[in-house]
Specification:
There is one protein chain. By secondary structure, this protein is of the alpha/beta class. It has seven helices and seven strands; from the N terminus they run H-H-E-H-E-H-E-H-E-H-E-E-H-E. A seven-stranded mixed β-sheet has the order 1-7-6-5-4-2-3. Helix 6 links the parallel strand 4 and strand 5. The protein is elongated and about 60 Å long.
């Protein structure tokens, strides 16, 4: 990394071995913020990988009887964890007929009688479909109308030229974007992920 080895080891050996920062090491949070524009450390929640991010997210927000909408197919945690918590999970099937993109009209129908969370992942895992900016914006508008929290798993997005929801964190008050170091940085063993939460 270009660091002076002796200075690094000296700093490491001087570190006090105790509990870490409960909300994340400040320098780490600031480092993540530097990857984005207009993001503050208090909007970043570090987690034990993306799997830990999903578990933390759903256990924090979902209660028995809550309605959760998730696309299908997708990463299984996005519908299985809410289901295990007693949520009413409604699946939004993705079809090859429209490029495995969410059917927004059907999404509106499913959200008619109230919904707590809407879960997408972009690009979709496993189909690879990539939602364009218009689709993302329309989904956000649908969530806004029903007061739902939109959760977008973007773990594979850095491998594409697709639009990220991270730029909308300041505009939409109920948006959570999930990212991880596993895929992009090939750091699966580190088990490091994070949630980016809207500033509203």
């Amino acid at each position: 990394t270009g660091e002076d080895k002796e200075a690094f080891l000296s700093s490491l050996c001087a570190r006090r071995l105790t509990y870490g920062d409960i909300f994340g090491q400040p320098a780490f949070l600031e480092g993540i913020c530097r990857l984005y524009r207009d993001l503050r450390p208090e909007q970043v929640i570090p987690t034990h990988g993306a799997a830990g991010a999903n578990h933390h997210l759903f256990c924090s927000l979902v209660e028995p009887g809550d309605k959760v909408i998730s696309v299908l197919p997708t990463y299984q945690q996005l519908y299985s964890i809410p289901d295990s918590l007693g949520a009413q999970v409604e699946l939004l099937p993705l079809s090859p007929d429209n490029g495995f993109l969410p059917d927004l009209a059907r999404l509106e129908e499913l959200a008619q009688e109230g919904v707590k969370l809407i879960c997408l992942n972009n690009p979709n895992n496993p189909t690879g479909s990539l939602a364009e900016p218009g689709t993302v914006a329309a989904t956000l508008e649908a969530c806004s109308r029903v007061g739902a929290v939109l959760v977008v798993d973007e773990c594979f997005l850095p491998f594409t030229d697709g639009p990220s929801c991270k730029g909308l964190l300041q505009e939409y008050p109920n948006l959570i974007v999930l990212r991880a170091f596993t895929k992009l940085y090939a750091m699966a063993g580190l088990r490091l992920g994070y949630l980016l939460c809207s500033g509203g």
